[in-house]
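Worked problem 6 (solution included).
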Amino acid sequence: MYKSFEIKNLRCFSYLNISNLERVNLIVGKNNVGKTALLEALFIHCGAYNPALTLNLNAFRGIETFIASGMSDQTPWDSLFYNFNTLEPAELKGKIEIGKQIINRGLTLKVLHEKAELAKVSLPIDPLRLRSEPGQILELSYEENGEKGQHFLIIEPRKGEMKLEPAPPPPPFLAIFLATKTRMPALDEVERFSKLKLNRQHEKIVSALQLIEPRLKNLEVLTISRVPIIHGDIGLERPVPLPLMGEGMTRLTSFLLSIGTTRGGVVLIDEIENGFHHSVLEKVWRAVIAAARDFDVQVFATTHSWECIKAVHEVSSQDEIYDFKLYPLERIDDKVEAVEYSRETLEAALSIEIEVR
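Solution. The predicted structure is:
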């Protein structure tokens, strides 16, 4: 569970601090204020030691990741840094609670330009060529409860190759980013469903999906033309491929499979309301919150929808534990700030329909 998170010089943030985080956190705000960028920063921080995750971010937005060549004065990370300034490092700090242990992890991301900086990287790469084609090495430095380390992501421009030195260890917990521009590959979802079925936990997913499709009796993987696809039994003559059951069913299944296979981790969902009719949003949130509690997962999501905010508040208010928090992002001059809404403040705002998006 992240308790607080801080960003400096990354994407649109010169500085942002967000605290008192809950199990379910909903980020709102106007277009281009940084909602998706906040999820991206969390994704990098969850990876802990792996600078290669930075190359995933443009893909999440539907932009094909490129390997910079010597013909370009850009780096693969220009858009990662505030105001495209790769001379200024980006910093991410998080306070994380794992069981009874508190972890304070700080990450620094820096594009190496200078000769003295390049000398820190011990790889058989021609230093003269790298100096003539600057900006092809990204350094990730971390400090975690007193322990320090460095990992380098090296792009060899002429070969179009990527190397990690040294190879980073796996992160202490899993994280999944569910983007709006790109869909989770069908085979990945089949594998996640299979893992849950092996552990006899797939029935929780079926029960949750029945909230928006009462006819659903079961889910199973069937192979058609050598392609495995999740199918749903809704009482017709034969099972229906999940993609044919509608955008809402497909997205909610993706949410639940991600949560179910990320026990003790973090799931990041961009524009969570997409694909759902406003009348089912309470059922969607009921399913997501129940799964997050069952599998001990922390959820961060974004939305533009007033109905979505109202739905998650209503669902959370019906439970003994109110473990939801709303955070509008607001741009003030050239800075973005996060506003924390308590349960009481949100209740009052919704009751008189004050704009909270």
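Discussion: The two ends are 25 Å apart (CA to CA).
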